[in-house]
């Protein structure tokens, strides 16, 4: 968190020095609220001290690029080859008590793919696509 303390102040300093390396995320569910790169300094300058603890500063992950097609309803045909990034999510299930694990298994996966130029990649928002590994 960006709490108003020495650690939070250091995180703010790093973000202001190299904003392209970071993403500022609110501590709430839902997409589309993250602040990226060159937009971070302005967001931090407008943020009141008591608002800082509602945000987390994370180093950005720059995954390897792949090339492929994003086929969309009403999109260009034939689609052009574009640079993409993918994120693999593994789902698990665990059942147990405080003393014993009864069941702990990997039960599924999902691959989300988006244009490499897009910061946000919500499938429901039309910015990404479900894929298969």
Automatic annotation (TrEMBL):
It is an enzyme of class 6 (ligase). Its EC number is 6.3.2.3. The keyword Magnesium applies. GO terms for cellular component: cytosol. Coiled coil: none annotated. Its cofactor is Mg(2+). GO terms for molecular function: ATP binding; glutathione binding; glutathione synthase activity; metal ion binding. The keyword Ligase applies. Keywords: ATP-binding, Glutathione biosynthesis, Ligase, Magnesium, Metal-binding, Nucleotide-binding. Pathway: Sulfur metabolism; glutathione biosynthesis; glutathione from L-cysteine and L-glutamate: step 2/2. Belongs to the eukaryotic GSH synthase family. This is glutathione synthase. It comes from Culex pipiens.
């Amino acid at each position: 968190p960006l709490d108003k303390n020495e650690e939070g102040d250091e995180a703010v300093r790093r973000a202001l020095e190299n904003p392209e390396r970071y993403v500022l995320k609110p501590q709430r569910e839902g997409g589309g609220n993250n602040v990226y790169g060159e937009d971070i300094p302005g967001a931090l300058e407008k943020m009141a001290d008591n608002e800082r603890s509602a945000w987390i500063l994370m180093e950005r992950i720059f995954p390897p690029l792949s090339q492929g097609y994003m086929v969309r309803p009403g999109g260009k045909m034939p689609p052009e080859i574009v640079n993409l990034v993918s994120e693999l999510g593994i789902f698990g299930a665990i059942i147990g008590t405080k003393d014993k694990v009864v069941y702990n298994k990997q039960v599924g996966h999902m691959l989300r793919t988006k244009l490499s130029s897009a910061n946000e990649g919500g499938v429901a928002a039309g910015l990404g696509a479900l894929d298969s590994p």
